[in-house]
Amino acid sequence: MNAEFRIKNSLKPYICFKIIIMKVDQIIAKSIISSGAEIVTCVPGFGGTQVFQTYTNLTRQSPVFSFHEEVAFASALGAAVAGKRSAFLTKVHGLAKAANAATDSLYMGLNGAMLVFVFEDEQGSHSDNIMAAEPLLKGLRMPYSIPEKENLAEQIYLAFEKSATLKIPVALILSADIVY
What we know:
The protein is of the alpha/beta class. 47% of the residues lie in helices and 16% in strands. The chain is built from 8 helices and 5 strands, in the order ααβααβααβαβαβ. It has helices spanning 3-11, 24-34, 48-59, 69-81, 92-97, 99-108, 133-140, 152-166; strands at 37-42, 85-91, 113-120, 144-145, 170-175. Strands 1-2-3-5-4 form a 5-stranded parallel sheet, with helices on both faces. The radius of gyration is 20 Å and the shape is globular.
């Protein structure tokens, strides 16, 4: 056995890999992109703004924020009705303002899929008051989940699949603090 063969075979048990550490806004933005979302709307707000800016940087788009929550929700909804995957990024107050469109979305039927990323400002540090997302979503009867940070990318993908299966938007409740 020659020396070259021994060296090559002795390296086989060692696997080299690179660890990439991403911030949560990057994980969310990359998951939206890899899930096939083509339309992403955002009303500026704690949590959603950071994710939207990362999304637009990754897709090389100029960020165009919406300043009317119901219009932003309806734009993402229209894309999903037309067969696209879409996302709406908002804080809880924004979802409350978009409640008319949100309620309508549950009866229209989607040909694509839509996720509603609802960012909670649990300390009220960037909001007029503290508003919880879960009671609002229960009242709207919109399906939702509260993903864990550990497997966030997978949960975003599964939420898109759930939306496509149910043919209605699905919400994800996230703490706005985790994007920092």
